[in-house]
Structure formats: structure tokens, C-alpha cells
Amino acid sequence: MFDEHAASDGSGRDGEPGGAITRDEVAHLARLSRLALGDDELGHLAAQLDQIISAVARVQEVAAEDIPPTSHALPLTNVYRADEVRPSLAPEQALAAAPAAEGQRFRVPRILDEEA
Amino acid sequence: MTELVRKTAAELGALIASGETSAAEVAQAHLDRIAAVDGQVNAFLHVDRDNVLAQARAVDERRASGAALGPLAGVPVAHKDVFTTRDLPTTAGSRILEGWRPPYDATITRRLRDAGLVILGKTNMDEFAMGSSTENSAFGTTHNPWDLTRVPGGSSGGSSAAVAAYEAPLSTGTDTGGSIRQPAAVTGIVGVKPTYGGSSRYGVIAFASSLDTPGPFARTVLDAALLHEAFSGHDEMDSTSIDRPVPPVVEAARRADVAGLRVGVVKEFAGDGYEPGVSARFAEAVELLESLGAKVVEVSCPHFSYALPAYYLIAPSEASSNLARFDAMRYGLRVGDDGTRSAEEVMALTRAEGFGPEVKRRIMLGTYALSSGYYDAYYGKAQQVRTLINRDFESAFEQVDVLVSPTTPTTAFPIGERADDPMAMYLADLCTIPSNLTGNPAISVPCGLADGLPVGLQIMAPVLGDDRVYRVGAAVERALEDRWGGPLLAEAPELAEAAK
Amino acid sequence: MTTPTLMPYDEALARFEPVLGIETHIELGTASKMFCGCPTAFGAEPNTQVCPVCLGLPGSLPVTNHAAIEGIIKIGLALDCTIVEWCRFARKNYFYPDMPKDYQISQYDEPLCVDGHLDVEVDGETYRVEIERVHMEEDTGKSLHVGGATGRIQGADHSLVDYNRAGIPLVEIVTKPITATGDRAPLVARAYATELRELVRSLGVSDVRMEEGSMRCDVNVSLMPRGASEWGTRTETKNVNSLRSVERAVRSEIERQAGVLDAGGRIVQETRHFHEDTGRTTSGRSKEEAQDYRYFPEPDLVPMAPSREWVEELRASLPELPAARRARIQREWGLSDMELRDVVNAGAVGLIEATIAAGADAPSARKWWMNELSRHATERSVELADLPVTPEQVARVQAMVTAGELNDKLARQVFQGVLAGEGAPDDVVAARGLKIVSDEGELASVVDQVIADNADAADKVRGGKVAAAGALVGAVMKATRGQADAGRARELILEKLGAS
Q: How many contacts does A have with B, using Cβ atoms within 8 A?
């Protein structure tokens, strides 16, 4: 990678201008990622992401259509456990680290709506 | 510094087993060393002295009662803060988990305990194992014992520094893109990434699940093999764990010969970007292997140059999902819950405050690579590259028994040098990443100094050929120690010991 | 926003053709959860059936429950699906407080079972519902919404989460679009849900209780103007938790969408919620942006490749399926289509079968379950199968009737006693003294007394008005607390009054 980087001045924007990631896209990604980023942080990240994405896009040069994808390091299959009950945590253990709890349940801020 | 902290793990285990010293004495010596130097090194995030001594006394009691002890019983180990521990906080170097006490032990934690190892404490790391310097830790940077102004590598930099600074004879790490091998290389010690699935990930706070591989650090190849053997092997709690016997790594480390072995030099791992000193030490190591009877050939792995971009798509993609659970609902930090904000807002505020810049960068990158419309062009392509790299390895291992390369292109870089330049930081993993993408085992062993800083030799083997990297690593270690008249680490400057 | 008026159902159907799609979630009745060993019992105290895995604690890893995979393959086979040779789990990424990892382990483009069908009957006509896919996933926790007026999510000021249900194995069954059902669309939807429930229940892999949420339906509805060829925009109605609600939700959505379209509006692709109380659907929160679930292969789990041998073994182990069973019992029990439907809808097939197996004749077995016991079930608002009476007990009562020891009225009292927990039928008979009075002398004296007490009626009978004997029989039954043989009493009365 990053051959381009060696030759660049580090200011970013090594990629095609058309492939640049926009600030709106970065804001969208931040929402999807549940990150409340300030304007400065968004701007900074947009520049860095643009640079990184331009560099990693190199994967598109080499991988031809007929190459199968690999999702796991090793080709294992069919790993199962028997349907046996094992001890659960005590509720006090389960709730020990909860930022807030009430009635042996995790207390969370109001939820906007069912998502799925 | 007492002589005890200079001893290898194998020596300490033997001394404790024979009763010449006690686990408590050994533990105390290391606690003293930590007290004396960790103020400068900052290898540890959590040390609980009483707990350490209690563990050591338990071993001594078992010995006194006549119980048979394993080879590492009573030997101290520094444990990367990415492994869950019931009795110590586990933070993965992140603010978002500050103070978290897990209700369960990682499988490797449990196996350390079962083997009688004494857990000294939890070591510093780049937040969620993302980084090559520990500068991304939320709790301060660890310093390289060779030069305190330089990084100890990362992400397992606390673990590498602890061993290099004689604060522990052994330590644990995890290697996702080089996070054991690169810190081992730049601190002049031994670090091993086992075959993926050879060591359990259960209780390892995930960075990139298909790449994360726990492994050992030590000052000698044999010590690393002993620790490897102690904590590896099948775990039914990890679906990706391999249900096969652990390769005979200890035997291989003792054997330490390369006669007749075919060694391939990866052609693509050379040239611009490699410091001249690193290239020179590597060339000498190859000559050394040849002189020891290995048959050296040059091997081409044409797709290895795509490993880094593929890695920087796959690892952040998995990370973006793995780190979603840090949402302020069940454990960890919660920010902004003032009774008016929604769960969604509290999640976003907490994550923005609780994660550091590199973690956020990678979450965003991974979210991008997986999002609809981009998946095929980025994540999908990266997975195809993974296939191509695997094919490169397969065809290389038809010609040779092991592959060698420099572990990392440079020696330890100064703290701060790359902190704001993620692209430069990522280059540290150039040579180590291919093995992560394919699950192959690899070791880094010291192979000399460049401008007074350690250089590492990487040895890679086929999947489940972990014994081979120990065998070759031990042969190189033995030959170089003969040449140098002692371990490389003896060249490291003495750290000033703080007054007690 | 204005609320368009609903269009009357008949008019809606005259102008529009509905297209349905049904997604059904079924919790499997395994002993332990999908990916961990926690128990699955319904109704446990909050957060008592959780562990590091199903709480999504950092470092924990899933391991697939073999019985769950067996269960889904059985469902797939029963739906005549193809069981694929290789598939993976995928992560569905979205943030939600009741989802511990903030992703759901599910399946995306590689479901385990594909291309099946289920035939359902409405008013004597058979509709083939094509099944697109059947896939495996995990359930979420449950939230209790606190504050606000309704206990609903809207207006609550915080929520309390119980993760006992998190990680329960969940099978999702997705139909292909169901077309050409015309005005029977709601009935076809209900018949499909009913048939699916019967099918899964017959397999013994789930208790499929909609009221406990172990079976839940999401109903997709779209309308296209009659004569059009392109489908309209669909809505997805969630929260449909009874068979009746499935029918009502479809009907309501047809009326609503027709009203919107009639008023010149557009149907918004959205999630809607069904309300049992009003029988109407309301819009879910309109999403600012389309969901992007960023699916990718689950790296913590290895692919599944069910062997053909295993699949065939499971196929051979399938019980008689409901359709075949219905055809058989209709033949064996001599039922009309209508009678069969009533028995099926009442969920009485298995109960009646078991009663017959315990010795009762088919008509009697059916009579008790469909009349007397159904009435009790309705009164108590429980399923027939949940009444505290066994088929063996029903057979025992019928045996006493056949032997002339009980009449129907007494038998009903016996059932009352059994249902009230007074013990087995024989115990109730003994305790309540419920035996037919068969002693001729005793009955004759009662008859004499009744004739004496009811001179008017007796005269009428003497005068040839035989129908008036009914009142006298009634009086005898009253005097014997129902324990007389009514037929024999009538004979005696007529005999004594010379009217025979």
C-alpha cells in the first residue's frame, strides 16, 4: 500500500477526486456508528478517512471476479455444542458493572422506538 | 536488581520446583523490580501486590503438600489487559472500560492459573489493540526500555516492555496484525503469533475476530514455547479453536537446528521503507541460516503487497461490529444520562468520549467498508485478497519449509513521531499482516542491533507448523548468542532503579 | 398530518388486489440458549438466565447449539425446503439497548433452508404458500418501559432491560409474496399462521405459544389496483401476536392502505405496529434514513455444512405432519370438512387422538373435547391443551358413561371436579357421590313421591299428554341430584300412570 503514501506530502487526497468521501458521508457514518462527533472532529476524520480509503482501494486492482472470498482464517466447519444447560451468572454478578440498575434489571435511558 | 529477575522462566520454574527458591521470593523480586522501574517504563496498568503474593504462596503451599508442579509453576507472567481477569480490572486500554471487573476469566487466564503461573498484573496496550506503539492507550504510553524516548511497539507494548525491562520473565499478548511480533522485535525479545485457532480467544476483548491470536512473549525461544504450551490448545468455548494437539513447540525449541531445512526469503519484503540497518541485520540472519545448514531460496509472494490494504478493510470492519457493544447500557462508561436524553443519544455521547481517535477512525472506516453500496468494493474485495494471499503462502510452502523476513521495517520509532499520522503507523505491520490474514504461525526473534536498537527476524510456517518457527527461531537464537557471547538483551542500557 | 379514512373492506377488495408476505419468528424449545449454556425457561426472575456470552460481555464468544440446528433443519424439511450444503451466520449490525452485542447473530444471504412451501386451506380451497427461506438467529432481551401513561415505549422516561430472552434460538420463516388470494387474504394469512403453528408443534421443536411470544408474525401488506401488474409499496406490521390478530392486521392494513390510495395519498414503506385493543395499525417512528445493517459473515462462528446423511436421518425421523394426519383422522373418525376444521382450529387433534388411544370411541372423544372441555377452556381463556385434564382421564369418564355408571350430566360434573383439582375422575365420583341411581326400588319410591307431589302433571299424563312426563322426569332428576337414569325414570313414570 501505502506506496503512494511514501511519495505524498501527507496532506491526504491521494485518491481520485471522484472517490473522495464527503463530509456528509462522514456525518452519516458517525450516526451509523453511534459517535457524537463535533464539527472539528468530523472535518479531521473526513480528511483522514479519505486518505485511508484511497489507499485501501488498492484491493480493487487485484481481486478478479472468479476469486472466492475468504471470511475465516482456517476452513473449519460444523462446530457445535451439545444442548446442555450450564450455570448462569448470579444476577448481582450480571448487574455488578451496570451504570444503573433497578428491580434486578438494567436501567437504560428512554428508548426512542422499536428498531427491529 | 536481584539475579532472580534476570533468570529465564525455565530456570525459575526449575529453581522453584527443586525448592532452591520459592514462588513467593520470585514474585517479590519481580514486584520490587516493577516498583523500581515501572515509573519510567509504564508497562503495567494494574498490579495488585497482595494478590500476586497470595498466588505465589498458593504455589509454594502446593509444592509443600507434595503436589506435582508444572514447569512454569510459580513463574511470574505479565498479562495483557485485553484478557479478562476476575480479580483485576480489564480495560483493553480504553477509557470506556475503565475500572471494569469482569465476572469471568478468559480461557488463557484460567490456563495460566491452572499451570501455576503467577499473574503479576495487567499490561498496557493500544486501545482495543489498535496501534503499533501503545500511544493509543487511554492510560499513557509505555516506554521502550532500550530508549525511553521511543515506543515499545504495539499493541502489546506493555507486555513487550515488561519482559525487556526484566519486570516479568514472560508475558501474554494478542496479535491481530503484528501486535506481538512487532513489539517483540523493537524491544529485543521473542514474540510468537501461534496458528489462528491454536490459542483460545475466549475472554480476549475482540478487535478483529478472524485475525486476533493470543501468543507469548519471553526473553528466550524456549521460554516462549513453555508459555505457548501452557495456555494453548483446544477450547470448546471458542468455535474457531482447532481441535488438535498443540504442536510440539517445546521439543522444537530444544531441538534448535535447521540442517536441511528449506528457507524462503520473501522477495517482496525489501526495498524502500526498510531502514538500512534492518535490511543489513536481516541479510546477516539469512546468511547465518545458510551457514547453519539451511537451504535458502528467494520466494515470490506477489499478493503480499495487497495484504496491508486488505487488512485495513477487514480489521476495521470486524472492529466496527465488535466494538458496538460498548454502548453504555450494561457496563463501562456512561456519559450524558441526565434523564432527558434518549438511549441513542447517551450511546453516541459515551462512545464519542470513551473511545480515542484511532478507535473512532477504525470504527468509521469499518462502518464505511461494510455499508451498503460499498461492501463489494471494499470488504468483499479484501476477502478475495485474503484468498490470494493464502494461495501465495500455499505455493511458497510447496517450495520451502519456512519463510523469513524482517519483522518490521524499522527499529523503535520515537514517541510522538507517528502519533498523528495513521498511515505511517500502519506501515509497522507491513511484514506481519499476511500471516494474520491466513492464520499462519510466525515468530519474531532478535537478530541484532541497528543504531543501538533491536531488530527482529520473522519466521513464518504453514498452518499448524508452530513447532517449525520455534525450531528455526531457537537455532538462530543459539547461533547468535554464541556469536554475541550472550543474549541481545544484555546490550540494553541499565534502567535506573528508583529508590524504594 | 391527516388521518385518511378507512375504506370499507368489500370496496377495498373490489378495487385493489392485496399481496401479502409473512415473516414468522419461532423460539425453539431447546434446553439451553442458541450460543451459550443458559437455560431458556419462560418466566424466570429477571437477569437470572444470563452469562458473559448472552450478555455480550467483552471477550465472550458464541458456540452454536446443535439441537437448535437440528430443530431448524426439521422445520425446513417439514416445509419441504432444500437444506443447503454450506452456509454461514452473519452479523446484523444495529444499536438497540435490548440487544447485548448491538448486533444480532443471524443469517443473511446464506440461509440454512430455502425454497419450500406450505399448503393451507380456506373454505375448502387450497392455497400454496411458497417459502422463501428459513434461517437461524438469536432473540433479544425484553424492555420494560417506565414512566409515561401507557407502559408503552412512547412517552416512557426510562426503560428496564431483562436479558433472559437474549440469545434464545429463533427461527425465522419468510414466505414469498402471497398473491391472488383476493378477499380471502386475511383468512389465508391466518390459515398460514395456524398451519405453521400446527406443523412446528407436531415436530416438537417449539411450544409455539403466541401469547408467550414463542411465535410472532410480521405481516407485509401491499395493494395494487385491480388490473395493474406492478405491486404497490408494502408496509410491515409487527407485534402481531395471535392468530386472530394476523387476520385482523391484514384486514385493517388493507382498509387503511385503500383509504390512503383512494384519497390520492402514497403508501410509505414503513414499520407499523398492531394494537390488539383497537384492531388497528399505527406507524412506527419514521426513519430519518434507511436502515443499513452492514451484514457480514460472523467471524466468531465457523460455517455450517450439514452432512447429507444427517439431513436424511432427520427427514426419516419426522413425525406424521399435520396435513397427512388430518387426512387420516378425517377418514378414521368419519368427519365432515367442517367438523375436521373445528377440531383442528380448537387444537384438539392430538388430544382426541390420545383419548381414543386411551380407549374411548372417536365420536365420544371428540364430543367431550369439542363441547364440554372447549367451553371450560374458553371460560378460562386458555388453550384446550392447557386444561388440567388428560386424555386418559377423558377416556376414563367416557368408559364410565359407556358402562352406564354415569350419564352425561354426571360426567360433566366429574369434569368440573377434575378441572377444579379434586383429583382423578374416580376420586371425583367417589367424593361427590356421583353414581347413577340404578336401584329399582329406590327409584320407584322416588317416582311415587314425585307423582304424589305433582298431581296436576300426573293427571295430564294419565289423560294422554305424554309430553307432560318431561316435568316429572325433571323432578325425579332433581330429587336424585341428577343421579337417576333419566330414561329408566321416564319408563317407570309412564308405567305407573298407565300411559305406556
A: 195
